[in-house]
């Protein structure tokens, strides 16, 4: 745990499939998670786009607070609490959005906020398993086919381009 956790730090789940073109340094951080070294969310996002992949940012923020003295040790405990709250099958990375050290009535505490991120090849945030669960699509568009709008009007695909 040589690297310190700060705003912009990225953690990636062990075993995440990444393209050969996407290389970066990392080190173990917590069980099944690696800390990306020398890159923040923006830097990793650029590298992912250069490799032709997509780096999604999922909505919502996850927070954890730990009380006591200890600096980075408290931050590490807070990050582990955040990782325990997550659903790992839905994403493969995490970005730290805020680290704040404060005190309340003389008792120091650390508050850490993070958001889920996901690296994948597709431009759509669905994996094959998700598509199978959705079942057949309600809208099946083919070239030169009309699309029904909510108002009942129909617009040809060629008119929309």
Question: What report would you give on this structure?
Answer:
The chain has helices at residues 41-50, 72-85, 128-134, 157-160; strands spanning 10-13, 26-30, 33-36, 54-57, 62-67, 93-104, 107-120, 146-148, 154-156. With 161 residues, it is α+β, with helices and mostly antiparallel strands. Strand 6 (93-104) and strand 7 (107-120) form a beta hairpin. Residues 134-161 have low confidence and may be disordered.
Strand segment count:
9
Helices and strands: which structural class? alpha+beta
Series of H and E elements: EEEHEEHEEHEEH
Low-confidence parts: 134-161
Ends distance: 52 Å
Secondary structure tally, helices:
4
Rg over alpha carbons:
21 Å
Proportion of residues in β-strands: 25-35%
The dominant shape is elongated
| Mean model confidence by pLDDT | 77
- Main β sheet profile: 7 strands, antiparallel
Helix content: 10-25%
Mind sketching the topology for me?
Blueprint lengths: L9 E4 L12 E5 L2 E4 L4 H10 L3 E4 L4 E6 L4 H14 L7 E12 L2 E14 L7 H7 L11 E3 L5 E3 H4 L1
Antiparallel strand pairs: 1-3, 1-6, 2-3, 4-7, 5-7, 6-7, 8-9
Report a brief summary of the structure:
This protein is of the alpha+beta class and 161 residues long. It has helices spanning 41-50, 72-85, 128-134, 157-160, and strands at 10-13, 26-30, 33-36, 54-57, 62-67, 93-104, 107-120, 146-148, 154-156. 22% of the residues lie in helices and 34% in strands.
């Amino acid at each position: 745990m040589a690297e310190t956790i700060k705003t912009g730090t990225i953690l990636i789940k062990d075993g995440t499939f990444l393209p050969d073109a996407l290389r970066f340094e990392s080190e173990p951080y917590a069980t099944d998670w690696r800390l990306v070294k020398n890159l923040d969310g923006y830097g990793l996002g650029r590298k992912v786009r250069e490799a032709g992949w997509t780096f999604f940012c999922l909505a919502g923020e996850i927070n954890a607070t730990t009380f006591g003295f200890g600096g980075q040790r408290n931050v590490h405990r807070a990050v582990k609490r955040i990782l325990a709250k997550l659903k790992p099958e839905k994403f493969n990375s995490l970005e730290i959005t805020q680290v704040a050290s404060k005190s309340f009535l003389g008792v120091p505490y650390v508050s850490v906020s993070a958001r889920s991120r996901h690296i994948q090849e597709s431009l759509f945030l669905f994996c094959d398993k998700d598509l199978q669960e959705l079942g057949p699509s309600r809208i099946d568009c083919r070239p030169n086919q009309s699309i029904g709008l909510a108002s009942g009007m129909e617009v040809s695909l060629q008119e929309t381009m």
